[in-house]
Design a protein that fits this description.
Number of domains: 1
CATH architecture: Up-down Bundle
Strand content: under 5%
Order of helices and strands: HHH
CATH topology: Chorismate Mutase Domain, subunit A
Helix content: over 70%
CATH class: Mainly Alpha
Distance between the termini: 52 Å
CATH superfamily: Chorismate mutase
Structural class: mainly alpha
Shape: elongated
Oligomer: single chain
Number of helices: 3
Length: 96
């Protein structure tokens, strides 16, 4: 097999994984949108630092188990959490 064919197969796999990640993130944000609406109607704060801390620790452990850099995983999750909080604040403020 030519080296370019091998590279093409690797890249196709990466493209499939990227597509799956996008759809998984979309699904996650659909759920967090519903959480934000629930929090707004029940007057709960947009952020839940205790939950965030538990999630970060849980995902750091999952990363270790998967031989993935836990620091990278935490940064990635923190980015997502910050975006979710921003969405929850917009919903709370009536702009969501």
């Amino acid at each position: 097999m030519a080296q370019d064919d091998k590279l093409t197969r690797y890249r196709e796999s990466i493209d499939n994984i990227d597509a799956a990640l996008v759809f998984m993130l979309a699904e996650r944000f659909k759920i967090t949108q519903a959480v934000g609406e629930y929090k707004a109607t029940t007057k709960l704060p947009p952020a839940d630092p205790g939950r965030e801390e538990r999630q970060i620790e849980r995902l750091r452990q999952l990363a270790k188990d998967a031989n993935l850099d836990p620091d990278f995983t935490e940064k990635f999750l923190r980015f997502i959490i910050d975006e979710v909080i921003r969405h929850h604040e917009r919903i709370r403020d009536g702009a969501g």
